[in-house]
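Exercise 7. Predict the joint structure of the components listed below.
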Amino acid sequence: MSTDAFTVLAEPTRRRILDALRDADRSVGELVDGLGVSQPAVSKHLRVLREAGFVSCRTAARQRIYRLEPGPLRAVDGWLDPYRRLWTRHLDALQRHLDSQEQ
Amino acid sequence: MSTDAFTVLAEPTRRRILDALRDADRSVGELVDGLGVSQPAVSKHLRVLREAGFVSCRTAARQRIYRLEPGPLRAVDGWLDPYRRLWTRHLDALQRHLDSQEQ
DNA sequence: CAGACATATAACGGAGAAGGCATATTGGGT
DNA sequence: ACCCAATATGCCTTCTCCGTTATATGTCTG
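Solution:
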């Protein structure tokens, strides 16, 4: 079953995979080099990322080229949206009052 | 020890706590009602959230009032930043070409 | 078509986290 | 000072997930 986006992102190795895919599409082998994890481990993470929609994959010769997809990251961005007022909104009087209350 | 922001957010109950704190500060008891989880469980999640900086807490009479803090969510927002070009940037010719390649 | 390369899956062991119950702690009211 | 309310912590069990080794699938190449 497909895992939810936050659980997927909780894994450091998976975030590093996403980072690596930000610059360019990569084959599994390319990802294995530079990640310092075994190939099966990488394949498993790629499966999780694929099933959650973070990446897609095309076949080129003997290799599988993975590619970053925007969908789930956009969703996280959207989830974050109602929280943005915490740091974007101007502090009004009430807000300042609450700030002064906390220790 | 303090857990990293993504791991903290991976827990659905913790996200619901953050949601509840978005509108107003809440005591532990208020959070327990409406979450449908035992009080010790909520206290444990609050501890995780506190140690990771997502919330702060002040003492009022016998209660502890928890409050949402912007820091870690901002950090997640920042992490997301280099990925935003995936969906904000205009598709150029190369991008369209790659799109047509994937199946 | 046989062998080699690239990737995926299986099986297993171990570590961490979540929830529940029981209990400790802290602060308040009388 | 006692008792009670509000919250925190300990302990235990269960379950999920990561990583490794071994093996299967698949696909070029000679």
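Discussion. The longest strand of chain B covers residues 55-60.
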